[in-house]
């Protein structure tokens, strides 16, 4: 499977939409995307926004698409997978974005040797800036993995990891946008507390996070070295950094990644 003309989604929720928008704003033809979604309002919205096709019938996606992306909640897997497995052929590739659910658990629902790739993307896919981790199932061919990596590289960064690393990827980059939104909101609140109008505070907070991330990415410098360059001796920044250390921001973020990774393991029954 060197390239792919049709991608089907089982579930048309938030993450499916983020991937779809990322693909369509890239080079993937909207006509090649089919989404099975139970809710009619959601189907209409996806069709109108992205020019893709939708259906209420899960089996239509499985019968017609080369790549089938499983995008329902992990809790729905036992309800949905028998219907997928019933129509699945050896020529197709199953891509799962489900948090926690292992490739072995997915494969167990199928006869034969289903080709499965487990992927953990994130919602900045909406703007072509996703951070994605992916790993192969036991029957997946190398070319399948490369194909899926290319698809997700079209909507951001996509790194191949081992399956045992996927729960950590989920806790860090899968859930991570929510941590960063909280940080942006809190920075803006701090600006408002100090007298800035809300729109000014939010615009400055967003650009500060964006600019700092871009500088880490483009300079290749360690974040600690970049932080040192902001901290003038006896100046303002080191006073702020001291407060962050006293109040435990670093431990709080490390703890958030661990809590989310643990929840990913729980969702996968581990
Ligand atoms: N949101 C995120 O940032 C990320 C999510 N994920 C993973 O993506 C998956 C989806 O998450 P998310 O998009 O947040 O959740 P959503 O609830 O937004 O999306 C799931 C969608 O699937 C629909 N659905 C449920 N059962 C069926 C069915 N039998 N046939 C067709 N559609 C069905 C749901 O409809 P209804 O609501 O009516 O049940 C809903 O629209 C999860 O497994 C999650 O772990 C992975 C990375 C990031
Ligand atoms: O919250 C969740 O379970 C999903 C998986 C990663 C991000 N959102």
UniProtKB/TrEMBL annotation:
SUPFAM superfamilies in the cross-refs: 6-phosphogluconate dehydrogenase C-terminal domain-like, NAD(P)-binding Rossmann-fold domains
Pyrroline-5-carboxylate reductase dimerisation domain location: 163-267
Localization terms from the record: Cytoplasm
Pathway named in the protein's UniProt entry: Amino-acid biosynthesis; L-proline biosynthesis; L-proline from L-glutamate 5-semialdehyde: step 1/1
Catalytic activity: L-proline + NADP(+) = (S)-1-pyrroline-5-carboxylate + NADPH + 2 H(+); L-proline + NAD(+) = (S)-1-pyrroline-5-carboxylate + NADH + 2 H(+)
Family stated for the protein in its record: Belongs to the pyrroline-5-carboxylate reductase family.
Broad EC category: oxidoreductase
Residue ranges occupied by any Pyrroline-5-carboxylate reductase catalytic N-terminal domain in the UniProt entry: 7-100
Top-level taxon of origin: Bacteria
InterPro entries referenced in this protein's UniProt entry, alphabetically: 6-PGluconate_DH-like_C_sf, NAD(P)-bd_dom_sf, P5C_Rdtase_cat_N, P5CR-like_CS, P5CR_dimer, Pyrroline-COOH_reductase
PROSITE patterns: P5CR
EC number: 1.5.1.2
Keywords: Amino-acid biosynthesis, Cytoplasm, NADP, Oxidoreductase, Proline biosynthesis
GO cellular component: cytoplasm
GO terms assigned for molecular function: pyrroline-5-carboxylate reductase activity
Species, as recorded: Desulfuromonas soudanensis
Positions with a binding annotation for NADP(+): 10-15, 71-74
Protein name stated in the entry: Pyrroline-5-carboxylate reductase
Function: Catalyzes the reduction of 1-pyrroline-5-carboxylate (PCA) to L-proline.
